């Protein structure tokens, strides 16, 4: 279990899989890739970055169109 924790910590620190493979003594990097698939914390952080609002405008563009809003209100 300590090796699993070490592998995960190395991956979270940004160490390339090839180096982690060598550190853990894996013959094939595919074995080491299990750590990348299992690392839910990294996935959670990536999702948070994707939805933190920096990728999307704060106000939808249609709400910034005053003439469109006036027309919608007139309906």
From TrEMBL:
UniProt superkingdom:
Bacteria
Q: Name one GO molecular function term.
A: DNA binding
Q: Where is the Tyr recombinase domain?
A: 1-39
A biological process term (GO) from this entry: DNA recombination
Extract the InterPro entries matched here.
Answer: DNA_brk_join_enz, Integrase-like_cat_sf, Integrase_catalytic
Stored Gene3D superfamilies: Intergrase catalytic core
A Pfam family (short name) is Phage_integrase
| Official protein name in the record | Tyr recombinase domain-containing protein
UniProt KW keywords: DNA recombination
């Amino acid at each position: 279990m300590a090796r699993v924790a070490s592998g995960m910590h190395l991956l979270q620190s940004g160490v390339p899989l090839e180096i982690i493979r060598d550190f853990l003594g894996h013959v094939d990097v595919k074995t080491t890739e299990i750590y990348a698939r299992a690392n839910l914390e990294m996935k959670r952080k990536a999702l948070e970055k994707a939805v933190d609002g920096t990728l999307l405008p704060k106000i939808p563009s249609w709400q910034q169109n005053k003439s469109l809003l006036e027309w919608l209100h007139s309906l």
